[in-house]
UniProtKB/TrEMBL annotation:
Bilayer-spanning residue ranges: 25-46, 66-85, 106-127, 161-181, 202-228, 248-269, 281-301, 336-354, 366-390, 421-441, 468-486, 498-519
Keywords, alphabetical: Cell membrane, Membrane, Transmembrane, Transmembrane helix, Transport
Classification via NCBIfam families: bcct
Source lineage: Bacteria, Bacillati, Actinomycetota, Actinomycetes, Kitasatosporales
Record-linked InterPro entries: BCCT_transptr
Span list, region Disordered: 541-569, 584-629
Protein name: BCCT family transporter
Subcellular location: Cell membrane
Length: 723
């Protein structure tokens, strides 16, 4: 059960925060983080380059051993996500059925993109395509440094940052949003597996271990990214000639990011994080537009279309490539590393996306989380990656000797080459540094919010004290790694984060199984609302009257010579048809209801109208079975008959509730031949009957249903109002 964060007025905030924590999760996670930081700092400082080489080899060993599992799992995530979005499960709302999204689409997209991988695109937007072009894999079959290698490089970069990356976040975020907002579970990774293991095991040490792994992997991943980002910021300032690289500069940069992140996390999700994300996306868009206009504009528009096609060709080509039999190490160093990295970040990004997606449908969630960021990635790699590749192909000014690529400075080098080293290059570099800083701030504050939720057992209302603690912890971790151990210490922590992805990947696979079971049940009980109109359209009525007149003319001895029926006959039969329809509705109302708004003694059944002959003896078509809901009687009943003939199409519309029943859930009564429904054959609810005394459950769809059922039971028993 989620820890309760409510505190008494006037209580000591530190004491109240300590009491609100989930100790079986917080204490082990904190101990592992402190121990790992101490080891990484000492080992990186003591052994330097040797430590970096040793842990790089360990990282590669992890990739060679279980990398195939990562590749297979992530591809399954892509297929699963699109299957859910395109199925009937896509209509399920992540929350109550009457809920609507909390954030606008722009704010929602800005926050999920900033937290997910905005900083990665800024860091690798120029460097990764150049690296792939200068050192393509064997599977590409292209000459290094050629134009063909450049086209492959863009497709490969998009493969790493497109659908596959966001499918990981989408699956984890979808499971968390569904289990919390729809079913009322605490917002925690462990509850993804309740449909498989049950509540008892999830609330035991197994669930605690899952959340501990999620916290540790998240802190390690964000701390490592913070360190790498600060190194890039320092390289950019040094490239501009403003500062010389030093430990003091690194410390100042870490403090700036940490303080800004702490302020943002204190102000909360709706104010600090949302506003920073909106500002960051606006600045990033401004930077991309500036490069688009200053750079080869026409070439970039052409490249956007071409790069989209290159990505679509690369997607199936690399989807299941594991590097088996290859000697270049490209798959190991890029595809497997990136996917393991995203898997380790999934608890953080997935939970954050879930928190900001309440009220959206599953279809909107999947398409928004997967397609929109992928489209932005295509635009970003086109503007920055294609520009860098073109500059290298024309002038050879983007890479060093032997095809080496300086990942920290390639972005700033591109600005210099585009503007000829003018003041515009400085302006673009300053904007880029600001974008990098804001992306790290949004990642830091989002991470602190998510870790705090996990350390409180899934409670979304947490004290400010613990949020500040985690924001400061991330900054301290990044500073220690950079100042004491340098890049070697970052490599140590990076390997630890990737290693934590192995057990988490098993959790995600089981989460897919859980969601399949839950969605099968949701689809089985999902009603379809059918709108039934009580008469044909005006065009159909006129056509029927015209055909009737033609039939009478064909049987008449005095057949008309005109091709079309006479207008007088047409108007006569049309009036008769309308009168017959209205009389039929009135007869059905008078003869088939018991005067109390019920239909033939069977609640919820459709009312059949008896056909009534028109005044001229022509039989009227049998009306369509229709019904409307009588709110007072709680049953379906026909509307009152109209007082006069009305040819208007705006008649009252009937809405029927239809539940689909599969053939295997039906039985046939051998005595009467009637088809009956076997409710026990339908997919059951794997977590039915579980109730939580938490705010999350009370505000969820499951909580509303539970209260509704209780009220109905009390009302039916006649015991007065429920508590």
């Amino acid at each position: 059960m989620a820890a309760q964060s409510a505190t008494k007025p006037g209580a000591n905030p530190v004491t109240a925060a300590w009491r609100s924590l989930s100790k079986p999760v917080f204490l082990p996670a904190l101990a592992i983080i402190v121990a790992a930081l101490a080891f990484a700092t000492w080992y990186g400082s003591a052994y330097g380059a040797d430590a970096q080489s040793a842990f790089t080899e360990l990282r590669d060993g992890i990739g060679r051993t279980i990398g195939w599992w990562y590749v297979l799992l992530v591809t399954v995530f892509v297929v699963f996500a699109f299957w859910v979005a395109c199925s009937r499960a896509g209509a399920i709302r992540l929350g109550r059925d009457d809920e609507r999204p909390v954030f606008s689409r722009f704010a929602w997209f800005a926050m999920l993109f900033s937290a997910g991988m905005g900083i990665g695109l800024v860091f690798w937007g120029v460097a990764e395509p150049l690296t792939h072009m200068m050192s393509p894999p064997e599977i590409a079959g292209v000459e290094p440094g050629s134009a063909e290698a450049g086209r492959f490089a863009i497709g490969a970069a998009l493969f790493h940052w497109g659908l596959h990356a966001w499918a990981i976040y989408a699956v984890v975020g979808l499971g968390l949003a569904y289990m919390s907002f729809r079913r009322g579970r605490p917002l925690s990774i462990r509850w993804l597996l309740e449909p498989v293991f049950g509540r008892k095991l999830i609330e035991s040490w197994v669930g605690h271990a899952i959340d501990v792994f999620a916290i540790v992997g998240t802190v390690f991943g964000v701390a490592t990214s913070l360190g790498q980002g600060v190194l890039q910021m320092q390289a950019g300032l040094a490239h501009l000639g403003w500062f010389q690289p030093s430990k003091g500069l690194l410390l100042v940069l870490v403090v700036i990011v940490t303080v800004a992140g702490t302020i943002s996390v204190v102000t909360g999700l709706d104010k600090g994080v949302r506003r920073l994300s909106n500002a960051n996306m606006s600045l990033a868009a401004l930077l991309a537009i500036a490069v688009l206009l200053i750079g080869p504009t026409a070439f970039l528009f052409q490249s956007f279309v071409q790069n989209s096609g290159e990505y679509l060709q690369t997607l199936p080509k690399l989807a299941l490539v594991t590097g088996a039999g290859a000697d270049d190490g490209w798959t190991l160093g890029w595809t497997l590393f990136n996917q393991a990295w995203f898997l380790s970040w999934a608890p953080f990004v997935g939970m954050f996306i879930a928190r900001i997606s309440r009220g959206r449908t599953i279809r909107e969630f999947i398409f928004g989380v997967m397609l929109a960021p992928t489209l932005i990635a295509v635009v970003w790699f086109t503007v920055f990656g294609s520009t860098g590749i073109l500059e290298q192909l024309k002038n050879g000014s983007m890479v060093g000797e032997g095809g080496s690529v300086d990942t920290n400075t390639t972005l700033f080098t591109l600005f210099e080459q585009l503007t000829g080293g003018s003041g515009m290059a400085v302006v673009l570099s300053v904007v880029a540094l600001l974008v990098i800083t804001l992306f790290f701030v949004t990642s830091s504050d989002s991470c602190a919010l998510v870790i705090d939720v996990l350390s409180h057992g899934g409670s979304t209302e947490t004290p400010r004290t613990t949020r500040v603690f985690w924001a400061v912890m991330i900054g301290v971790a990044g500073a220690l790694l950079l100042l004491a151990g340098g890049e070697a210490a970052l490599t140590v922590l990076q390997v630890s984060s990737i290693a934590s992805a192995a057990p988490l990947s098993v959790v995600y696979a089981l989460a897919v199984v859980s969601m399949v079971r839950m969605f099968r049940h949701e689809i089985a009980i999902m009603p379809r609302f059918v709108r039934v109109h009580p008469k044909a359209s005006p065009t159909a009525l006129v056509s029927a009257a015209r055909e009737k007149v033609r039939g009478e003319d064909a049987r008449s001895e005095d057949t008309r010579s005109e091709d079309s029926p006479g207008e007088e006959d047409l108007e006569r039969d049309l009036r008769a048809l309308l009168r017959a329809w209205h009389d039929g509705e009135g007869a059905g109302t008078a003869g088939e209801t018991g005067g109390a708004g019920r239909t033939g003694g069977s609640e919820g059944a459709a009312t059949r109208r008896r056909p009534v002959a028109a005044p001229d003896g022509t039989p009227s078509p049998a009306p369509t079975p229709t019904a409307v809901l009588d709110q007072s009687a709680g049953a379906f009943a026909p509307p009152a008959a109209p007082a006069a003939v009305d040819a208007s199409p705006d008649r009252p519309v009937r809405v029927l509730t239809v539940l689909d029943v599969p053939a295997y859930a039906t039985t046939v009564d051998t005595a009467t031949g009637a088809v009956e429904w076997d409710e026990t054959a339908m997919p059951g609810d794997p977590i039915e009957g579980e109730v939580f005394d938490t705010p999350e459950f009370a505000s969820s769809a499951a909580g509303v249903e539970e209260r509704t059922a209780r009220l109905l039971r009390v009302a039916a028993a006649g015991d007065g109002p429920a508590d």
